[in-house]
Amino acid sequence: MILKDIDEIKKIRNSAQLVSKTLGIMAKEIKPGITSLYLDKIAEEFIRDNNAIPGFKGYNNFPNTLCISVNNQVVHGIPCNKPLDDGDIISIDCGVINEGYYGDHAYTFEVGEVDKNIKELLDVTKKSLYQGIDAMIENNRIGDIGNAIQNYINLHGYGIVRELVGHGLGKNLHEEPEVPNYGKKGTGKIIKNGLVLAIEPMVNMGTEKISLDTDGWTIVTLDGKSSAHFEHDIALINGKPEILSTFDFIYDALGIKSDEEKRFKNFFI
Ligand code: MG
Ligand code: MG
User: Fold this and answer.
1) Strands 232-237 and 240-243
2) Residue ranges per domain, the chain?
3) Is the pLDDT of residue 269 over 70?
4) Ligand nearest to the CA of residue 169, numbered in listed order
5) Distance, CA 230 to ligand 2 centroid (Å)?
6) What is the pLDDT of residues 91-116, one digit of tens each?
7) Which ligand sits nearest to residue 94's alpha carbon?
8) How remote is the CA of residue 178 from the centroid of ligand 1, in Å?
């Protein structure tokens, strides 16, 4: 487990905030009829205009700037030319490298008018992320984070993806420790000041089971039902979780008022 000093955390925060701004631009652009490839193009331009590098492009040979996963696609979707439909949901995961440090976060957007059951899936998945962040306190363990997410999701009967997990974040996109979205209280590594995590529940409407699409990248639900994905980058500072990424740019674009991140903003104002 690599612990970071405040200087490094500031750099990760800069990268995370650039991802947040990119997602804010996505929020303005998403509507029925546009393609995920179009979103990918403007995201890449925006990141490069800000003197940063798209973090996913070329990572394990991934071809694009964004992972864009629609409806039954869970994560790692490849942007394509298929127009989005009214009622779709679209998970956008974005990474950047700036000053040698990664930011990595994700949001699931609604396209046009979305069915209320699917809205509920998005709402619950996002809330489970904050349950996980609440458990990221000094001397808790990694298993406490997964346990908090799992307990919340189980109340709603959704499927938690097991094979894909959150992770440490820093000079590398994926660092130790792995952060599963399920787990037992009091198990796993001890959480210490300077730890930076990407916490990212992936939650399916139906079965937790997934499979790999023939493109070799896209993860899809086995039953074809929808899946949601929300991810934040968080540092432990002064014993408390400090959120480095933000959904505020998305909410500004969509006219949503939210104070969901307020309790995780203490160190950086
Ligand atoms: Mg991500
Ligand atoms: Mg991640």
Assistant:
1) antiparallel
2) 6-264
3) no
4) 2
5) 10
6) 999 999 999 999 999 999 999 999 99
7) 1
8) 13
6-264 classified as CATH 3.30.565.60: no
What does the CA dihedral 55, 58, 64, 68 come to, rounded to 10 degrees?
Answer: -70
Q: Are strands 232-237 and 196-199 parallel, antiparallel or unpaired?
A: antiparallel
198 CA → ligand 2 middle, Å: 5
Q: CB burial class (10 A; 0-12, 13-18, 19+) of residue 110?
A: middle
Contact 66, 92 (CB under 8 A): yes
**Cross-strand bridge partners of residue 35:** 83
* Cα–Cα distance measured from residue 173 to residue 97, given in angstroms and rounded to the nearest whole number: 9
Ligand in nearest proximity to the CA of 108: 1
Under 8 Å between Cβ of 240 and 137: yes
Question: In angstroms, what is the span from residue 218 Cα to ligand 2's centroid?
Answer: 15
Residue 243 has pLDDT above 70, yes or no: yes
Q: How far apart are CA 80 and CA 64, in angstroms?
A: 10
All residues at 6 or more sequence positions from 60 whose CB lies less than 8 Å from its CB, including other chains:
none
Which ligand is nearest the CA of 74, by number?
1
Q: Which ligand has an atom closest to residue 229 CA?
A: 1
Query: What is the pTM (predicted TM-score) of this model?
Result: 0.98
Nearest ligand to the CA atom of 196: 2
**Cα(152) to centroid(ligand 1), Å:** 21
Distance 173 CA to ligand 2 centre (A): 7
